[in-house]
Amino acid sequence: MTEALDDSPVGANSVIADGKSFVFETGMLPAELSVVVPTYNEAKNAPLIVAALSRALVGIRWEVVFVDDDSPDGTASHARALALGDPRVRVVHRYGRRGLASACVEGILATAAPYVAIMDGDMQHDETILPQMLDRLSKGDVDLVVGSRYVEGGGMGDWNKRRVAMSRFATMLANRLTKTAIGDPMSGFFMIARAPFMAALPGLSSIGFKILLDIAASSPTPLRVAEVPFTFRNRQHGESKLDGLVLWEYLQLLIDKAFGHIVPVRFISFALVGGSGVFVHFFVLTVTLETLLAINGASLEGRWFVIAQGAATLVATTTNFLLNNLLTYRDQRLKGAKLVWGWITFNLVCGFGFAANVGVASWLYQRHNYLIVSALAGIAVTTVWNYAMSSIFTWRKRG
Ligand SMILES: Nc1nc2c(ncn2[C@@H]2O[C@H](COP(=O)(O)OP(=O)(O)O)[C@@H](O)[C@H]2O)c(=O)[nH]1
Ligand SMILES: [Mg+2]
To answer: Which residues cross the membrane (predicted)?
Structure first.
């Protein structure tokens, strides 16, 4: 491959990327369009996707990048088998991590194509509009083309009323946040040029499942947007991965976009869970103490308190651990034996955190005598300590 000189012909065997024209040997042309497909348990759908793209993208140099989070149904190895028969198929296999948005980002970063589309791996998105999207985008006057369910001609398939209403509400919130007029900023089906994506990259939260919203909100300049309507189809095989907690993920994304530059959203989540632990603690403490006193009478009250306090601490630490595993570290959720080991390290971390709490609070109290200030300082130190240490020892990122 050689970089084209100004006077060299730009024809079918050349590609323009980063403002430069590259000329290729015929038969070695790289993709101009990369379709990034995040997958989790889509083994049966993967071949359908490849076949559908082959039909829809005749005359376009395309590739598909499946980004699979080590699906239990073996989607990644199915996709690799497809890739052995068709060089346009590529696979990014992630291990020990989950997340739709981060999968899309890594898929886009794994290709050199000047135009990238994001499309679901369950055949719900209508691949036949991809050529129209590419046509629109390659004119160069827009950064982004959204496959939109709301503009005229678009449709929702057979979504139920509640889901449509929820989606419209989320859309309204999103438009406020991005200050970009996208008819359907919640759409998971869109095509973007490389440069505007790279510009948004440093600001991305990569939390949850609304990657388009994330990109639009992170772009340093408002994205120039066009929309192409499509009708949402029904999922071909398998089931939806988006459960009740997607609302929580959406909230996390909004919080990160609003306050993420001040404090990490994970810390906010960790602190909120910690706050819930206080209620759990007092509830268990009261119930245990009342029960012990009712059974044994008021004698030895001091000893019953120690037992009740110990039980409350253990239960509250456990609920904190489980909630953090579910909410704060949803993308790195521990399971099975790792869950047990995580619980042990979390207890150890919190044990030291508790010692630090008492130490700092009593030190301050002895010097200044401000009860509430001392207590709050102790709590703050513990929260930061527990957060930092559990992120290292309990939910350490596997690289
Ligand atoms: N890599 C990856 N893909 C995911 C994850 N969760 C969902 N997906 C994929 O994202 C797409 C949309 O998810 P889906 O469950 O169909 O959501 P729904 O259409 O809103 O019900 C599908 O292709 C899923 O396989 C994830 O954690 N990691
Ligand atoms: Mg789907």
So the answer is: 263-284, 304-327, 339-364, 370-388
